[in-house]
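Duplicate of #3305? Posting structure anyway:
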């Protein structure tokens, strides 16, 4: 079932998400619905807060990036098969010199901006069967994970922009939160308060 994606301005996107137990109700069903939602919106990542749940769960499938001709063969190969669910993750380390890449977000449609992130990460997490993993990622794979991880920390990519950039996109963000945007996937917008 395709779930509505929560739009910028909803308080759930600002909450630090809570860890979930192994017996979290209907977890497999939630994961299936989140995959369907992500693919339906042509995303490469989706975090539980983006479907209204403040829990530490996100998923990524970086295969669309594998078609980028500018990447090395090794980078394309890593991105091609990278489809994972991350439950209760912790980024242990972020290293290297920050680099810019144009990021977007399903909760913030029609806005793309350069965001600086470190290129290498080490992350500990549980998969959908609650097996524990500690892995290292680099480049675009690391970036997608960092972006989704930020969601479960209550951070959006727009928070990482300069104050000038934030001022330039302020009107667009306000329109998104009011539902004044056309998207080809289901979204839920924060309740718009009516003037009395």
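Output from current build:
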């Amino acid at each position: 079932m395709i779930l509505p994606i929560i739009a910028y301005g909803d308080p759930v996107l600002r909450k630090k998400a809570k860890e979930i137990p192994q017996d979290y109700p209907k977890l497999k069903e939630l994961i299936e619905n989140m995959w369907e939602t992500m693919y339906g919106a042509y995303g490469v990542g989706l975090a539980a807060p983006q479907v209204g749940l403040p829990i530490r769960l996100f998923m990524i499938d970086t295969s669309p990036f594998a078609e980028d001709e500018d990447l090395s063969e090794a980078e394309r190969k890593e991105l091609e098969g990278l489809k994972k669910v991350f439950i209760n993750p912790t980024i242990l380390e972020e290293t290297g010199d920050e680099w810019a890449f144009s990021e977007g977000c399903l909760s913030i449609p029609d806005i793309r901006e350069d965001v600086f992130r470190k290129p290498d990460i080490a992350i500990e997490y549980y998969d959908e069967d609650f097996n524990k993993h500690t892995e290292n990622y680099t480049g675009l794979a690391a970036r997608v994970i960092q972006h989704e991880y930020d969601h479960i920390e209550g951070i959006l990519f727009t928070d990482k922009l300069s104050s000038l950039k934030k001022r330039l996109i302020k009107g667009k963000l306000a329109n998104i939160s009011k539902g004044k945007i056309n998207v080809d996937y289901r979204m839920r917008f924060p309740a718009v308060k009516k003037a009395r």
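Confirmed duplicate; merging threads. The longest helix spans residues 163-177. The chain has one domain: 5-188.
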